[in-house]
């Protein structure tokens, strides 16, 4: 399937001239552990200890990290704001 966007209007290299540099932070863990629980009471005690709920997610961060979203950010030229 061909890209339907005209290559002239989607040339990011031309559009990016004189734009501020973007550097994504590398967020790496200092240490990773696996914790096993014998029962639900152990899970609840651990949640109380760390101040976080354990859901269905495969991992957590301690302390909680702020979730950063960049996929909703867009650059528009003057007059193109949608």
Tell me about the largest β-sheet. Answer: none
**Low-confidence runs (pLDDT<50, min 5 residues)?**
none
Q: CA-to-CA gap between the ends?
A: 27 Å
* Proportion of residues in β-strands: under 5%
* Class from helix and strand fractions: mainly alpha
Q: Could you state the order of secondary-structure elements as H and E?
A: HH
What is the number of helical segments per DSSP (H or I, 4+ residues)? 2
The overall pLDDT, averaged over residues, is: 80
Shape: elongated
Share of helical residues: 10-25%
Number of strands: 0
Any idea what the radius of gyration is? 22 Å
Question: What's the gist of this structure?
Answer:
The protein has 82 residues and is mainly alpha-helical.
Structure write-up:
The chain is mainly alpha-helical and 82 residues long. The chain has a domain at 56-82. Helix content is 18%, strand content 0%. It has two helices and no strands. The radius of gyration is 22 Å and the shape is elongated. The model has no long low-confidence stretch (mean pLDDT 80).
Main attributes?
82 residues, mainly alpha, 2 helices, 0% strand
Topology, element by element:
Elements: H1 12-15, H2 40-50
